[in-house]
């Protein structure tokens, strides 16, 4: 497999074409942004750690029957993925009130939700990712009813799997964001799953271990991501066949 020209550069990742028209290289940068790119810093090694965490999570999800774009890890910052047409709807699943949910509905951060909540946001930095409901998704034809239902069901399955995955390493999965794409007529999980796209709190100390450390200038961002990866490795490395 040969890496070819750049196809797309996002805020935290770059996609390159390959000599196989079906496959792309996804490169994880150290660039870290918040508030739709308004706050930006380069955090040394973040890309390496996020590539590692995302690889471990995609492998775990694939093993548990979730279809993803992940093919294999290629290098410290690169993974081979199936090229897909990204559906511009970010699917957020919440278990505990935090972030924009707490602000929007006046619910204290840390309040457990009675059941997991799925929310949809239109992927547009320019418009600051506005929250949308399924009717907007159908009206603007971002996805069909069948596709959105599949995304929702998959997001809820991923939530159950990841709650268990993190619980076993002493971490609470507060909420997370998923992106999906179309590949050969199927909807598959794409993008990344990292502490940039999840809220993760230590189960005993309630310490924040995710990108909120960057958003809120709490320091020790990469150190926290490394702590998550260390725990993942301790728990799951021995379980590999
Ligand atoms: P929110 O509370 O700010 O809406 O974020 C919900 C979850 O989505 C949280 O785990 C962080 C993640 N997220 C992203 O991955 N990208 C984004 O642009 C935003 C705003 C949140
Ligand atoms: N990912 C978004 C940005 O880069 C927002 C966020 O994660 O807070 O600006």
Structure description:
- The protein is an alpha+beta fold.
- It has 2 domains: 3-82, 2-Layer Sandwich (Phosphorylase Kinase, domain 1); 85-219, 2-Layer Sandwich (D-amino Acid Aminotransferase, Chain A, domain 1), CATH 3.30.470.
- It is 31% helix and 35% strand.
- The protein has 6 helices and 14 strands.
- It has helices at residues 46-63, 99-105, 134-139, 145-167, 212-215, 221-236, and strands spanning 3-9, 13-18, 23-28, 31-34, 39-42, 70-75, 78-82, 85-86, 89-96, 112-122, 131-132, 171-183, 186-190, 198-202.
- Strand 10 and strand 11 form a beta hairpin.
- The two termini are 25 Å apart.
- The model has no long low-confidence stretch (mean pLDDT 97).
- The site of thymidine-5'-phosphate (TMP) has 12 residues, from helix 2, strand 12 and strand 14.
- Residues 11, 33-37, 211, 215 line the site of aspartic acid.
- It is an enzyme of class 6 (ligase).
């Amino acid at each position: 497999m040969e890496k070819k020209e750049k196809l797309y550069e996002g805020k935290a990742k770059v996609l390159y074409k390959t000599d196989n028209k079906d496959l792309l290289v996804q490169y994880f940068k150290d660039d870290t942004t918040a508030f739709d790119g308004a706050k930006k810093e380069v955090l040394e090694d973040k890309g390496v750690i996020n590539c590692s965490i995302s690889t471990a999570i995609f492998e775990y999800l694939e093993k548990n029957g979730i279809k993803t774009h992940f093919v294999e890890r290629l290098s410290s910052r690169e993974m081979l993925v199936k090229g897909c047409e990204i559906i511009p709807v970010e699917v957020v699943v919440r278990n505990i009130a935090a972030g924009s949910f707490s602000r929007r509905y006046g619910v204290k951060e840390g309040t457990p939700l009675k059941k997991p909540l799925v929310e949809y946001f239109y992927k547009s930095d320019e418009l600051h990712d506005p929250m949308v409901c399924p009717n907007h998704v159908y009206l603007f034809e971002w996805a069909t009813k069948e596709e959105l239902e599949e995304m929702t069901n998959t997001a809820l399955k991923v939530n159950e799997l990841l709650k268990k995955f993190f619980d076993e390493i002493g971490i609470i999965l507060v909420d997370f964001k998923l992106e999906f794409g179309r590949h050969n007529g199927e909807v598959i999980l794409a993008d990344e799953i990292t502490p940039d796209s999840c809220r993760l709190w230590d189960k005993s100390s309630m310490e924040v271990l995710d990108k909120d450390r960057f958003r809120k200038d709490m320091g020790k961002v990469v150190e926290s991501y490394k702590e998550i990866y260390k725990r993942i490795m301790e728990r799951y490395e021995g379980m590999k066949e």
